[in-house]
């Protein structure tokens, strides 16, 4: 006589399966950017059939937007924590510049650059990009407002200054992808530019 043993299968809940797919897509985006999030690629990374991805994530555009939002929201939380380790608005601004230009966030730079481009044809992603850019702006403007309250900064418009700082930092990081520049070398220059823009004393925004 022979007997056949079958391995019991564990049926996962929709929430569990959806979470696994999102985790796989997030991991893939960190490695290959948002352009790497195709139905087939996500299915392979999650170890499931493409049809299952389509069942739990009917819209790849929405999945890409969700992955982008989660990655950027986590980055903002991380940067806020890092800035909190420095005292005073000038110290927090210095830490912001150092953190964003230390050369360790290339994976997120790729995600940002691709999101700006892919958002032209993905309305869900475009909306997510606008929301996260606004979140970044609020965080930086709050640091500047704190400096204005204590007299560390004297810029007439914290909102405009925040957008300009973010534009300069984003531009340097984006160029590093194509030009191969080491953005950390720009930290002192960016700190001096921030001092001029914010009306802060020379040397007050200095990385440690």
Commentary on this structure:
The chain has 208 residues and is mainly alpha-helical. It folds into two domains: 12-58, Orthogonal Bundle (Arc Repressor Mutant, subunit A); 61-198, Orthogonal Bundle (Tetracycline Repressor, domain 2). Helices cover 70% and strands 0% of the residues. It starts with 13 loop residues before the first helix and ends in a 10-residue tail after the last helix.
Short summary:
With 208 residues, the protein is an all-alpha fold. Helices cover 70% and strands 0% of the residues.
The helix count comes to 9
Helical/strand content category? mainly alpha
Mean pLDDT: 90
CATH architecture assignment of the largest domain: Orthogonal Bundle
**Whole-Å distance between the termini?**
76 Å
CATH class of the largest domain: Mainly Alpha
Shape: elongated
CATH-assigned fold name of the largest domain: Tetracycline Repressor, domain 2
Helices and strands in order, then pairings?
Layout (H helix, E strand, L loop, with lengths): L13 H19 L6 H8 L3 H7 L3 H24 L4 H13 L5 H13 L4 H28 L7 H22 L7 H12 L10
Helix pairs in contact: 1-2, 1-4, 1-6, 2-3, 4-5, 4-6, 4-7, 5-7, 5-9, 6-8, 7-8, 8-9
List keywords for this structure.
single chain, Arc Repressor Mutant, subunit A, Tetracycline Repressor, domain 2, 2 domains, disordered N terminus
